[in-house]
Design goal:
By secondary structure, the protein is an alpha/beta fold. The chain is built from ten helices and nine strands. Helix 4 packs across helix 5 and helix 6 packs antiparallel against helix 7.
């Protein structure tokens, strides 16, 4: 019975994914399909200007800072990541902005208070912004970092000047089936509260998403780990938000795997919106 269920899962995922890609190819305007041009870029800034810790109410948070630009950008890494995950993106963005790379609770060199959720991490991020007196930063989040960005904007509407949420899912049920299956298998061998969080959270209802009032850019890759319909759902429920799906990209190829694309994605949108 388990073998039959597994086979049906594979077949269902394949045909659903095929149908989704056909829709993307036939209706690119529906997803605002884009290609990121990285042919002309500034040289990356090699070294951070700061490598430090800050004591928050529940977390001793480690962070890096790149650049000295007038406008602040905060890059928020994904589940299991660290400041190094988005280091290359920071190095390019540092040509135009002051870029902060905080490490979330239970990640990197930041402390582990024993509990984690997206609400808690959004609270930490809000404290980080207040403690360092960062004025209306642009929050660019990848994966869980994108969920954190959306959660921050909803729960702390005065914190961010804008958010760019790359690869966020609205709830665990919108993952393509292979992804949570892999997480559950990993948890069988090595239980991890970070995995538990991904399997249980978030729960972005239309009402919750409607609380996001700052400018928002909802982004995913053509071959992302969640269905593209979920990217559309998040975009449609954040009033006034923009959306893009990057052609040929997967969940991480344009973020933690290639900071050049992150730079182009962010710079193009921020310039277009007059936000930085």
């Amino acid at each position: 019975m388990k073998a039959f269920t597994g086979i049906m899962l594979i077949i269902t995922t394949f045909f659903s994914g095929f149908a989704s890609q056909i829709d993307f190819i036939v209706n690119p305007a529906k997803y605002n399909a884009i290609i990121l041009d990285i042919s002309s870029l500034p040289a990356p800034v090699e070294e951070p200007v700061k490598d430090d810790y800050i004591e928050l109410s529940e977390v001793k948070m480690h962070y890096l800072v790149y650049g000295t630009g007038e406008k602040a950008v905060i890059l928020v890494h994904g589940n299991g990541g660290s400041a190094n995950s988005l280091k290359e993106a920071a190095q390019y963005l540092a040509n135009d902005y002051t870029v902060y790379l905080p490490e979330s609770r239970c990640h990197g060199k930041s402390s582990d208070p024993g509990v984690i959720s997206y609400d808690l991490m959004a609270g930490d991020l809000n404290e980080f912004i207040e403690a360092l007196d960062i004025d209306k930063p642009i929050i660019i989040g990848h994966s869980d970092g994108a969920i954190n960005a959306i959660t921050l904007a909803a729960l702390y509407p005065d914190a961010a000047g804008a958010i760019i949420a790359c690869g966020a899912n609205s709830n665990p049920g919108t993952f393509k089936p292979y992804f949570p299956l892999g997480v559950r298998i990993a948890n069988m061998f090595k239980p991890d509260k970070l995995n538990d969080m991904m399997l249980e959270l978030p729960d972005f209802t239309p009402g919750f998403l409607s609380k996001v009032t700052c400018p928002a850019y909802i982004v995913s890759g053509q071959f992302d780990i969640m269905w593209l319909s979920d990217t559309v759902y998040i975009h449609e429920n954040i009033k006034g938000s923009d959306m893009a799906v990057i052609k040929g990209a997967d969940h991480s190829s344009y973020m933690s795997h290639d900071g050049r694309q992150t730079y182009v994605l962010a710079k193009n949108w921020l310039d277009e919106k007059g936000l930085a």
